[in-house]
UniProtKB/TrEMBL annotation:
Protein name: Copper resistance protein D domain-containing protein
Spans through the membrane: 6-25, 45-65, 85-108, 128-147
The entry's keywords: Membrane, Transmembrane, Transmembrane helix
Length: 148
């Protein structure tokens, strides 16, 4: 089971690195015409790439957590430092998934179309939340790994 950490790390690099790349792209492309050229082309490719990365993260994470007995600790309400760190990480992961779903639904529904103000707000705010939460999840992953 130790080989799973390599898949998990590669997927995490792709997932978090992709979020950072898209954030930098969004900040640097101020011109609306350039955004309309870039996002409809790169968005779907990036989206599918990120979905694959997220699935690998979830599957490898579940398998590693099961191997280390962390799933049972989570279900039993373990309040040890390890149990607490794992619980916090899983709560953050749940929010990452929620905000990712919101972002993907809006992004795929409106790709190449004009967005309403609500759709723009949902897309941008959920994307920003995913980026921020990714960094916090990474922090908890480092703590968790040092505890194991």
């Amino acid at each position: 089971m130790e080989f799973l950490i390599h898949f998990h790390l590669m997927a995490a690099m792709a997932w978090i690195g992709g979020s950072i790349f898209m954030f930098v792209l969004g900040v640097s492309l101020r011109d609306k015409s350039k955004q309309k050229e870039v996002y409809p082309n790169i968005g779907p490719i990036f989206g599918y790439f990120e979905i694959v990365s997220l699935v690998i993260l979830l599957v490898s994470g579940i398998l590693m957590a099961d191997d280390k007995g962390l799933i049972y600790a989570l279900l039993d309400g373990d309040t040890s430092p390890l149990g607490t760190v794992f619980f916090n990480k899983m709560m953050l992961v749940a929010f990452v998934i929620l905000f990712t779903i919101i972002h993907f639904v809006v992004a795929f529904k409106t790709n190449g179309k004009c967005r309403t103000k609500l759709q723009n707000f949902l897309s941008r705010s959920s994307s920003l939340m995913v980026l921020f939460l990714n960094l916090v999840v990474l922090h908890y992953a480092i703590i968790l790994r040092s505890m194991l």
